[in-house]
Amino acid sequence: MADDTTYYADNAGRNLARKFELQAYDLRAFLKSFENETGEEAITDGFGVLTESEEVTTAYLEYSAEALRAMALVHRHLDEIADALKQVNDNTEIGDEEVAALFGKSADGGK
């Protein structure tokens, strides 16, 4: 490979990691809002006549809690993906620098 073709776009991993971080951040904000809007107080206050049945109230509370747990897992997974992508990007940059040094190029692109 005598040419200067880049096979891993500069900052591609970092940009992708940032997108995952933003999605995780947005999801975290949504989860906070969802929890406030679907917690026990919101359900018992918001459903009026339906909450006269404890069975109905309990079912809604269980559903809300389960949905919250599931989305929290998605949030955690997005954070883990972002962290892994950052690590891949860092490793790629280090590897590129080390390979370049083997061929006599310095970090600033000169010889």
Structure, explained:
There is one protein chain. With 111 residues, the protein is mainly α. The protein is 75% helix and 0% strand. The protein has helices at residues 12-38, 40-46, 54-102. It is rod-shaped, with a radius of gyration of 24 Å.
Note the topology.
Elements: H1 12-38, H2 40-46, H3 54-102
Helix pairs in contact: 1-3
Task: Considering the chains and any ligands shown, give keywords for the structure.
single chain, 111 residues, 75% helix, rod-shaped
How many β-strands, per DSSP? 0
Structural category is: mainly alpha
Low-confidence stretches: none
Shape verdict:
rod-shaped
User: Could you tell me the strand content as a percent range?
Assistant: under 5%
How would you characterize the largest beta sheet?
none
> How many angstroms separate the termini?
17 Å
Question: What is the arithmetic mean of pLDDT?
Answer: 81
Rounded radius of gyration (Å): 24 Å
Discrete helix count: 3
Brief rundown of the structure:
With 111 residues, the chain is an all-alpha fold. It contains 3 helices and no strands.
